[in-house]
Write a structure and sequence with these properties.
110 residues
Length: 110
């Protein structure tokens, strides 16, 4: 069973997810877009001063890039990938999110 066998709707959803994550990744990797980061954008000025904004943006951008690449892979290779790749993708996303949270709270502090 291939990944394409699980798809019941149109493929445009995967491509929209890819485009959204790719655009957010580019904005964050450039060091801008800290207003995209939940929690940081609502933090007080004193709390924001505890973090290196450029590092935080780049860390989040790399994490979002991984998800964008995963969506691109699933969109392009849906006729080749086995159906259980959905579980692998979910595992990769879960690990990615955990790593982003850990690095955001350790590496990105001043």
């Amino acid at each position: 069973m291939k990944l394409v066998d699980l798809v019941t709707g149109s493929d445009w959803i995967v491509w929209i997810v890819f485009v959204i994550f790719a655009v957010f990744s580019i904005i964050l990797l450039s060091g801008h877009g800290s207003w995209f980061i939940s929690g940081y954008n609502t933090a007080s000025k004193e709390e924001k001063e505890k973090y290196d904004e450029k590092k935080l943006c780049r860390t989040m951008g790399i994490g979002m890039s991984i998800i964008a690449i995963l969506a691109l892979t699933m969109g392009l290779l849906e006729n080749i990938l086995p159906a259980f790749f959905v579980y692998i993708a979910l595992g990769i996303i879960l690990v990615d999110v955990v790593v982003i949270i850990i690095l955001g709270n350790t590496l990105c502090r001043k």
